[in-house]
């Protein structure tokens, strides 16, 4: 994988609560310079002005996921109206922990129905789940019509992405849904390990460092 190809797997991310519109403008300029696929910003910072080469992603129910499905649906719909090309929603993690995968599916479906024409990624917070819960959440996301499953918010104390979690996700839905690794990807070796395990997209706030190791 060359530098251009790796860059096109990256959602260049800025989700710190204190982020300003000026910092988002800098993020977009850097994304265009690095050649990343998209930027990912907080919904309160939409709309943004980005070149056609850079997609705009945002988050929903972030970072806890402990929001009623109707609220997530409304938030996602507003983001889509404000120009988001992609939405990364957080599941209600408590539903997954208690093995209520019907509730996980219903949560995702509410957002899917609200943004039928917007790419939807589903953040599972895999470090907080068992292997079986990861698998079942992936299958619930597929049933609900999601486009991607994603490892992490990057904000949970349990940790971020892991090769093990990506492997489980790939075994569950690889080839049918995209798989996004996010949380703790700060260098080239880690990024390539995630892609080798089955990830098809990377969430990175350290995109320049990730791209340093390839030509």
TrEMBL record:
Catalytic residue list: 88 (proton donor/acceptor), 150 (schiff-base intermediate with acetaldehyde), 180 (proton donor/acceptor)
InterPro entries: Aldolase_TIM, DeoC, DeoC/FbaB/LacD_aldolase, DeoC_typeI
Keyword terms, alphabetized: Cytoplasm, Lyase, Schiff base
Domain of life: Bacteria
Stored Pfam families: DeoC
Class of the enzyme per the UniProt entry, highest EC level: lyase
GO molecular function ontology, one term from the record: deoxyribose-phosphate aldolase activity
Pathway(s) the chain acts in: Carbohydrate degradation; 2-deoxy-D-ribose 1-phosphate degradation; D-glyceraldehyde 3-phosphate and acetaldehyde from 2-deoxy-alpha-D-ribose 1-phosphate: step 2/2
Enzyme Commission number: 4.1.2.4
Reaction(s) this enzyme catalyzes, per UniProt: 2-deoxy-D-ribose 5-phosphate = D-glyceraldehyde 3-phosphate + acetaldehyde
Localization in the cell: Cytoplasm
PANTHER family associated with the record: DEOXYRIBOSE-PHOSPHATE ALDOLASE
Purpose: Catalyzes a reversible aldol reaction between acetaldehyde and D-glyceraldehyde 3-phosphate to generate 2-deoxy-D-ribose 5-phosphate.
NCBIfam families in the record: deoC
Family: Belongs to the DeoC/FbaB aldolase family. DeoC type 1 subfamily.
Protein name in the entry: Deoxyribose-phosphate aldolase
Organism: Corynebacterium suedekumii
Top-level taxonomy: Bacteria, Bacillati, Actinomycetota, Actinomycetes, Mycobacteriales
């Amino acid at each position: 994988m060359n530098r251009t190809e790796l860059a096109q797997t990256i959602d260049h991310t800025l989700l710190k609560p204190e982020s300003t519109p000026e910092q988002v403008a800098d993020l977009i300029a850097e994304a265009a310079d690095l050649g990343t696929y998209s930027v990912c910003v907080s919904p309160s910072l939409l709309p943004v002005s980005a070149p056609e080469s850079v997609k705009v992603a945002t988050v929903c129910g972030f970072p806890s996921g402990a929001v009623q499905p109707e609220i997530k649906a409304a938030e996602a719909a507003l983001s889509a109206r404000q120009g988001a090309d992609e939405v990364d929603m957080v599941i209600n993690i408590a539903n997954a922990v208690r093995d209520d995968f019907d509730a996980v599916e219903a949560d995702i479906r509410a957002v899917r129905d609200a943004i039928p024409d917007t790419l939807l990624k589903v953040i599972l917070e895999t470090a907080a789940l068992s292997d079986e819960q990861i698998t079942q959440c992936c299958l619930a996301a597929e049933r609900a019509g999601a486009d991607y499953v994603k490892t992490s918010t990057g904000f949970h104390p349990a940790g971020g992405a892991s090769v093990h979690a990506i492997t489980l996700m790939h075994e569950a839905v690889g080839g049918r849904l995209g798989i996004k690794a996010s949380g703790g990807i700060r260098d080239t070796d880690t990024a390539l390990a995630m892609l080798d395990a089955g990830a098809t997209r990377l969430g990175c706030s350290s995109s320049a460092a990730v791209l340093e190791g390839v030509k």
